[in-house]
Specification:
Elements (H helix, E strand, L loop, with lengths): L4 H4 L22 H28 L66 E6 L5 H10 L3 E6 L2 E6 L1 H10 L7 E8 L3 H9 L13 E7 L7 H20 L12 E7 L3 E7 L21 H11 L7 E3 L6 H10 L20 H13 L9 E5 L2 H13 L8 E4 L14 E4 L14 H12 L4 E6 L4 H5 L5 E7 L2 E9 L8
Parallel strand pairs: 5-6, 8-9, 8-11, 9-10, 11-12
Antiparallel strand pairs: 1-3, 1-4, 2-3, 4-7, 6-7, 12-14, 13-14
Helix pairs in contact: 4-9, 5-6, 7-8
Length: 502
């Protein structure tokens, strides 16, 4: 197939004039075409193995063999009698980094098929978990606590290594990550056509096929590409062309509820292709339907709790609780309820999904859930509808009615429910949510904090960078972060009975 942009748009492969033209060479689709293509690929593999054997005996490189990193000169790790095997790079080499020029099969003229079966031993993948900006450190610490290797912070996320079971566990247990993205391809790109060839060289057939629906998303940082929309189209064409060449047809595109979702990330000179194993964002736990006036996403609430240092056995108060997201996330974390235990994931719709192993992972996680909270949790809000929504959300999350004490009340009238010192973690109103008549809210709330909460830790996320001055408090910590697209700060204070003035 020609690599020119015009020919890439054709849905029917152009005929090649040769001795078989008299028999008619229209492109076939369906099982027979796949069998013909696979037979040709299998024959190519046997020929390469014979060449490699003769070369090893002679002590030379096989004739016509590639010298790119020596990958084509390596002996095959798969027996030639196995079905659906090819000369593609063995997965045991550690990931799916494709060549700059995709391999071509002699029968179909397209890419060589990757092995359909999994390697005998555990395969390790490079994984990226995005998160809200400002929570990278908290996410990295969470991933280390979950036992993952090679964890390090990245831009708006964290990188780590895991086998496929670890990928499923990260989806099940991470409270801060937004998605779990498995790297399946990476290579240098200078033009949109380079991106198309990289997508064509990546073994997508290992994960999904033409019978499944597909969505592709593209993002970039400092990329010279002029149009992300065109880059997205070229990546999608590369994926679909490969599957058409191998399986006889292209997958359908579904931007709403696809079976498979691919993320393309472009940097200054490199493209990285990720397989999204999560599907819907991980902050969608499945329990919040009533969102309130200015809701926090669940993973942001979990990140605030982690950054605040709140221990699961200490009292917790949110005096501006809204629909209760911070407190419900705290309760579920204290009870060891996995955040993903009640929701579906994209990896369940991929090929070769280990259903039994996934079921065992969830059963083991459920067996570790605690029966009772070790500390009191309380929330207050002036809006009775917000309190009703918070109670309903708690019930949907599986909490009993007495797990969290919700009350319609003013933050200036709150007091501790326990003699022990605890934590206040809250998202108070600011901007348009704060009415013109609330100018005295902050000094009056500050007096309540001074009188009632000596020895407590106060952590406030706000877009009002002048809030510490209004509260007449000296912050011990100022952590930049984003609530959606809104730049915020998480201010941390140590409350001490007595004077708060500077």
């Amino acid at each position: 197939m020609s690599d020119s942009p015009e020919r890439k748009k054709l849905s029917v492969r152009a005929r090649t004039p040769d001795a078989t033209a008299g028999r008619g060479d229209a492109r076939r689709a369906g099982p027979r075409a796949r069998r013909v293509a696979q037979a040709g690929l299998e024959e190519e593999k046997r020929a390469r193995m014979r060449d490699a054997t003769r070369a090893d005996a002679a002590g030379d490189t096989p004739a016509g063999g590639s010298t790119r990193g020596g990958r084509d000169n390596a002996p095959s790790l798969r027996p030639p009698k196995a079905e659906r095997r090819s000369s593609a790079r063995p997965a045991a080499e550690g990931g799916f980094r494709p060549r700059n020029s995709p391999p071509r099969g002699p029968a179909a003229g397209g890419p060589a098929a990757a092995p359909a079966a999994r390697p005998a031993g555990p395969e390790t993948f490079r994984v990226f978990a995005p998160c809200p900006q400002g929570l990278e450190g908290a996410l990295a610490a969470e991933l280390q606590q979950l036992g993952f290797a090679d964890v390090h912070e990245g831009r708006a996320g964290a990188h780590f290594s895991a086998d496929w079971q670890g990928v499923m566990q990260a989806n099940l247990h991470s409270r801060i990550a937004a998605r779990i993205l498995v790297e399946v391809g990476r290579g240098p790109v200078a033009t949109e056509d380079d991106l198309l060839e990289l997508a064509r060289a990546t073994p997508w057939e290992r994960w999904f096929g033409a019978e499944q629906t597909l969505r592709v998303d593209t993002s970039a940082v400092r990329s010279p590409m002029k149009s992300l929309q065109y880059c997205n189209l070229r990546a999608k064409d590369g994926i679909c062309d490969r599957l058409r060449d191998l399986e006889g047809e292209r997958p359908s595109i579904d931007t709403v509820r696809p079976d498979a979702r691919v993320h393309v990330f472009l940097s200054a000179d490199t493209a990285t292709l990720y397989l999204d194993t999560s599907g819907e964002s991980l902050f969608k736990r499945g329990w919040r339907l009533d969102k309130g006036e200015a809701p926090l996403r669940e993973n942001l609430a979990a990140g605030l709790l982690a950054l605040s240092g709140w221990p699961a056995d200490a009292p917790l108060l949110d005096p501006f609780c809204g629909s209760g997201t911070i407190l419900i996330e705290a309760a579920l974390a204290a009870l060891k309820v996995p955040p993903g235990v009640s929701r579906p994931f994209a990896f369940e719709r991929l090929r070769h999904h280990p259903e039994r192993r996934w079921r065992d992972l969830k059963d083991d996680a459920r067996s570790r859930i605690l029966d009772e909270l070790p500390m009191p949790l309380a929330g207050a809000d002036l809006d009775p509808q917000a309190i009703d929504a918070a109670r309903e959300n708690a019930r949907r999350a599986g909490l009993t009615d007495d797990a969290i004490y919700f009350e319609t009340a003013d933050a200036r009238d709150t007091c501790p429910l326990d003699e022990r010192a605890g934590w206040i973690v809250t998202n108070p109103p600011y901007g348009e949510r704060l009415g013109a008549g609330d100018a005295e809210l902050w000094p009056e709330w500050s007096r309540t904090l001074k009188r009632e909460f000596g020895g407590w830790q106060l952590h406030v996320i706000t877009n009002d960078f002048d809030l510490p001055r209004k509260l007449r408090l000296d912050p011990k910590r100022r952590i930049p972060m984003y609530n959606g697209a809104l730049e915020c700060r998480l201010f941390g204070f140590e409350l001490v009975s007595g004077g708060f003035r500077r």
